[in-house]
Design brief:
This protein is α/β, with parallel strands linked by helices and 281 residues long. It folds into 2 domains: 84 residues, Leucine Dehydrogenase, chain A, domain 1 (Rossmann fold); 124 residues, 3-Layer(aba) Sandwich (Rossmann fold), CATH 3.40.50.720. The protein is 40% helix and 16% strand. The chain has 10 helices and 11 strands. The strands form 3 sheets. A 6-stranded parallel β-sheet has the order 1-11-8-7-5-6. A 3-stranded parallel β-sheet has the order 3-2-4, with helices on both faces. A hairpin with a 2-residue loop joins strand 9 and strand 10. 45% of the residues are buried. It binds NADPH dihydro-nicotinamide-adenine-dinucleotide phosphate. NADPH dihydro-nicotinamide-adenine-dinucleotide phosphate (NDP) binds next to helix 10. The site of NADPH dihydro-nicotinamide-adenine-dinucleotide phosphate (NDP) has 26 residues, from helix 10.
Length: 281
Amino acid sequence: MTTVVDGKQLAAQVRASVKERTATLGGVPRLVAVLVGEDPASEIYVRNKARDAEKSGLDSEVIRLPAETPSDALLARIDALNADPKTTGILVQLPLPEGIDAAEVAARIDPDKDVDCLNPTNTGRLVQNLPGLRPCTPSGCLHVLDTAGVELQGARAVVVGRSEIVGKPVSLMLLHRHATVTICHSRTRDLAGVVREADVVIAAVGVPELVRGDWIKPGAAVIDVGMNRLESGLVGDVDFEGAQGRAGLITPVPGGVGPLTRAFLLENTLRAWKLQHGDPA
Ligand code: NDP
């Protein structure tokens, strides 16, 4: 039988835990979201993140800047937030308007305030498994596996996708947990054959239902990160129907990894507060 993971419920538990631990901190972490321009989808994301933060007992602020904001002015704003002891976490909502280099912006955020984990220093800390913030979506994937009691040590894990925000970091996190990790991408030969060997499959591709049900080894844990908007609605990167009955565990889309990504932004804000107060969390 396949367990279908309830990501909303897991996310509610993470938020409740953040709220409980925040209440005993002796201070209130503050999440600051910077929104440049007027992209309607970004406006919704930022508003939701601020609302989530407040519901978990965190302070939040949204800084809205016009689309014509020069790069230097945005960087100066980030410098000011880095220097502000009341600001715990900084996130700059992507995409940024043309002419602003997102990598330069990410590199400017104080690594201990970089709750989206896009600063290369945080990537280095992840590679070396040093204390620090970890990216939200990969943290959500590991949380699903851990709460379900999936044994990672010695397991064959196959990650489909090698992006900076999901594929690479989740591969490293699985490696640090002693899984044997294979990273697949668009040039991988015989993707089906590689996935068929996996005890743990993480699909982060952006191609609707690329991973077919009959590729799934019976009993495997399948984490579907994909979010593909089709006319029929939101679908993942895994053929959910086909995988059901074969997988031991699967995350649905929607209602799987997505809510956990949001919840781990709050967890990261709490971790950031601890890092800034001398607790490596
Ligand atoms: P990217 O587009 O940055 O990366 C996609 C990866 O998939 C690339 O490494 C690419 O390979 C690989 N790929 C593309 N086509 C194939 C193929 N046919 N076979 C094998 N590999 C392939 O995507 P992201 O990692 O940013 O996002 C992946 C998906 O996850 C998207 O649907 C996105 O919306 C979703 N997402 C969901 C989140 C959540 O909270 N649930 C958070 C972040 C993303 P190559 O490198 O060779 O080009």
